[in-house]
Amino acid sequence: MINLVDVSLRYGEKVIYNKISTTIGVRDRIGLVGSNGSGKSTLIKLLLDEAEIDSGEVERPAYVTLGYLPQDGIEVKGTSLYDEVSKAFEDALELQKNIDEADEKMLEMDTNSEEYYELLDQIGAWEQKLEAHEPAKMKSRIEKTLMGLGFEVSDLERDTGEFSGGWQMRIALAKLLLKEPSLLLLDEPTNHLDIISQQWLEDYLTRYEGSLMVISHDRAFLDAVTNRTIHLSMGRLNSYSGNYSFYVKQSEADLETLRKKVKNQQAEIQRQKDFINRFRGNVKKASLVQSRMKDLEKMEIIKLPPQEKKIYFRFPPPPPGSAKVIELQNVSKSYGNVQVFKGLDFHIEKGDRLAVVGVNGAGKSTLARILAGVEPFQEGERALGINTVLAYFAQQQADELDPSKTVLEEVEQASADANREESNPRAVLGALLFRKDDVFKKTTVLSGGERNRLALAKMLMKEANTIILDEPTNHLDIKSKEILQDAIREFDGTVILVSHDRDFLDPIVNKVLEVSKTGTRMLTCNVSEYLERLKEEQGALAR
Predict the structure, then answer these.
(1) Global pTM?
(2) How far apart are the C-alpha atoms of 31 and 212, rounded to whole Å?
């Protein structure tokens, strides 16, 4: 369907692509992976014809249509949600408009004229095209897609300008899915989705008839929707015929094979050198020595690819605490006339590792702030256990960075405030993607994602026996998430996590707290088990 042939591109001294080639087939489901700066976003721009290359070709037939969802930056207003999303069917709506206008025109035409029959033939062609769009199903398809992405029936007539950034991206995603292009290009599509909507999107993409290319740091999502992985690294493109987990396993096997080849070649080189040194002064073997010296000079040395330094960190050891950590009794919370919680009762015990899940707008972040003691409420009580020491991460903490400090200075100050002389701020920063000279950047020049990661690094300096993390994996790549996951797994305290990343959550949580408009419920399971339970409950209701 689309061919990249010997594509080369460099920016200054940096080689982005060095004669890379690949083919995107009709039903390919591709996960596009690689470290930051490896050329993932640039590859999507090439496919969209929005970037130039130094050499090579990008072959794309005219019949191939592309649909692209960026990470953010899309905003619409001035139309209702329903009317905005119905623009996905602009071609069909235009056809219907043409048919309606032609029908009116025919009422005034001579039924025996040649123009009348020509217009009748044209209407027939339009109607045939329109039938392929299944206009009778458009309304139900629009509503089904919007409901799947978390909107409610009451949202359909709301002005799109009333929706926040995350919901704006869902509007764009709904339009894109309904257009059904030949190739869907999705850049972090789950960033703005709750765990329920993400599950719906996975199911939708699994059944999608076209091709798909996804950039994502969500390993479970990649495993669910892709059947092929393209890895970009140091100007090279490697294609693997499987999902992300297959790619990890296969790339490790390939690396091990390469290590063996390097070892065998080094042994052979040493054997030849030993022969040369032994018989260098032997006249009878002079020609043989010369031959072997030339063979060594011609030999192409096998090299291992550069490996990123393994980074790890650990939370400070938690101070002792009581069996009861936090308890909420009859808590009610409202914002104006909007009630978030009423009569909320539950408690968290020592050693709980809790995932807080639910649809967007259900109050997950509000609950996290209440538990952390930074959000007031109208009724009820919040009680901490004896010696409960909290550390809380919220993305809003990024707004509290000191503009006069560098990245490293911020974390060193946080470490000093926590009296953590043995801490290693550089290791924590490295794990959260601040490497080399990045640590000397002033906080004023950081992007939104960098500011969030820095706020998380500061929080990791504090000694606590209970940590509350609200979407800690946003803006982290897969490797960094694994490092944070390992640190939480090793943490001998209580953990409360608000996240929609089930691959991150599953190995480290033992309970799920479901937050909904009707209240909360606590389940002893991980997130994947919770989703299976939801499916069973929905199936029982449908019967």
Answers:
(1) 0.79
(2) 8
